[in-house]
Write a structure and sequence with these properties.
The chain is an alpha/beta fold and about 230 residues long. The protein has one domain: Zn peptidases (Aminopeptidase). Helix 4 links the parallel strand 8 and strand 9. The chain is globular. Bound molecules: zinc ion. Zinc ion binds next to loops.
């Protein structure tokens, strides 16, 4: 089920292109041989959270092709990751571009450094699901119909799970990160809000602020368990 350590330098699973970014770059998902994943794990929907891609890749490269039981997107925002920006090539925060009842056209604000005001502006898109990256992800979810989604972010150091699901509690237990249930603030157009409207179990897995070396120590084993189907739903 696990690949010999010396052979973990390349991805040995076959990826499937599920869409294209604004710039025409491929969006890739790695699927289990059954093509029927229970869980989809997604990294770097925010392009400035590259450590989530690095650690998720470390987990994927540790698993033999027949050991992969769930679906992996190493980067949901390939143009943003290539630019080092939170938003996509058009400056849209993809995590505010989902077609939710509470979607808002107003700018969204974030902070990129600790102890700074949250005043850096991005767009939620011209309309819900205006961006090709969002549309492609929605189509993929429609096709795969996973029972749960785990989205990786950094660096709030928590497991944020609106429902307090079995999966969320298990991830909190395995990582030692605090479980935040039903965080009080509204996030219009977020993937989490959309999933909640669809009755889809979505767990936001926020890494702590640390180097990829340190993050791998703590999170690669947990992600291997998720990808090999060793977690209950
Ligand atoms: Zn994020």
């Amino acid at each position: 089920m696990l690949i010999e350590r010396s052979q973990r330098g390349v991805i040995r699973h076959t990826g499937t292109v599920y869409g294209k970014s604004v710039e025409g770059n491929p969006l890739t998902v790695w699927l289990p041989e059954t093509n029927k994943p229970d869980i989809l794990v997604l990294a770097s929907i925010h392009g400035d959270e590259a450590e989530t891609t690095v650690v998720l890749s470390d987990a994927l490269r540790s698993i033999s092709p027949d050991g992969l039981k769930n679906a992996v997107i190493l980067c949901g925002n390939v143009d943003g990751l290539a630019r080092g920006t939170r938003g996509n090539a058009r400056g849209v925060d993809l995590n505010r571009n989902f077609p939710t009842a509470n979607w808002l056209p107003e700018p969204v604000y974030y902070k990129s450094r600790r102890n700074e005001p949250q005043d850096i502006t991005l767009s939620p898109g011209e309309c819900p699901a205006s961006e090709p990256e969002t549309k492609a992800l929605l189509s993929l979810l429609e096709q795969l119909k996973p029972r749960a989604v785990v989205t990786l972010h950094s660096a709030l150091a928590c497991i944020d799970d609106a429902d307090g699901s079995v999966l969320g509690r298990l991830l909190a237990q395995k990582t030692g990160l605090p479980l935040e249930v039903g965080v009080g603030y509204a996030t219009p157009g977020s993937f989490g809000s959309w999933a909640s409207e669809q009755n889809l179990n979505l767990v936001t897995y926020e890494f702590e602020a640390a180097s990829p070396y340190d993050l791998k120590e703590r999170h690669t084993p947990v992600l291997i368990d998720v990808l090999t189907g060793k977690v209950d739903l």
